[in-house]
Write a structure and sequence with these properties.
This protein is an alpha+beta fold and about 190 residues long. It has 2 domains: about 1-60, no CATH class; about 65-185, Alpha-Beta Plaits (2-Layer Sandwich). The protein has 3 helices and 6 strands. It has helices spanning about 80-85, 90-110, 135-160, and strands spanning about 15, 20, 65-80, 115-120, 120-125, 165-180. It has a 4-stranded antiparallel sheet, covered by helices on one side. A two-stranded antiparallel ribbon has the order 1-2. It starts with 13 loop residues before the first strand and ends in an 11-residue tail after the last strand. About 15% of the residues are buried.
Amino acid sequence: MGARDSDGVSKLTHYHGLGETAPGAETRQTRKMPVCSQCGADNPDVAKFCLACGSPLKAAPPPQEFRKVVTIVFSDLKGSTSMAEKLDSEAVREVMSRYFDVMRTELERHGGVVEKYIGDAVMAVFGLPKLHEDDALRAVRAAAGMQRALSELNDELERRWGVGLANRTGVNTGEVVAGDPTTGQRLVT
């Protein structure tokens, strides 16, 4: 543990941030300690007030979740496995990268935010982080735009790799539990 100085105050046995151990101290795993917003001193997890200056230590507020009506566009490729069997790995990666770039551009053009890519599928949400009264209409327009953009992309893919893509797209509006955007979590369910 820590050594005590002549005043009876515990000394740190581990120099935080430097990764070095104090001379004569045993090495142990450390965990992040709450830092006082007033003086910057490290404090033990159980402290309610800063041990150096006496200021109250504020606990981080728990992430806030809320219900929100959003529209989700989900689109996945049809026959991507057979396409991958015809091409080598690098070509498949290039084809898929082009596909995702074109789909993302079309979704974002209409105000959607790509939530995630799942295999050969893309999922986007309209209404997060900012709600618009016409999010459902924007999503339907984006889905139609994705079909047009795919047709144009297929011309390029046919010329370059001799393949064409087809996708299935669904649009759904409903209530979700949205996560706290300050924590980087937009969509919970």
